[in-house]
Amino acid sequence: MSVQPGFAPSRSFPVSCFSVVAKAEPGIMPRVIQVFAKRGLVPSQWYSITHGAARQDLHIDVQVPDLDPQLRELIAETLRQMISVETVLTSEKNRALSA
Fold first, then answer.
1. What is the tally of helices (H) and strands (E) in the chain?
2. Which domains does the chain have, with CATH numbers?
3. By three-state DSSP, how is residue 45 classified?
4. pLDDT tens readout for residues 28-53
5. pTM for this entry
C-alpha cells in the first residue's frame, strides 16, 4: 500500500458507549460523571437531554475511547446501582483516526 507524504494510514480504536436513562434530578449528572472520574477516565463525548411530558426523564449518552470490555461492564453495573437510574445500555463502536 502506498502512502502519500504527510498522511498516515488510519487506525481503529474501540469506543465504549453508555446510554443512561434516569429521573431528571439536579444531582444525577455529577454522580454519573464521578463514576468515570474515580477511574481517571475523561469521556470523549457527553450528551444529555431531558425528555418526557414534564421533562421528568434525563437521557445521558457517554463515550469513552480505549476502554477494556470488563471495565465497561463494571462501570455499567455501578451506574445501574445508582438511585434514580432506570436503565443503562452499553455498546462498542469503532472509529477511524488518522495520525
1. 2, 4
2. 20-92 (3.30.70.260)
3. strand
4. 999 999 999 999 999 999 999 998 77
5. 0.79
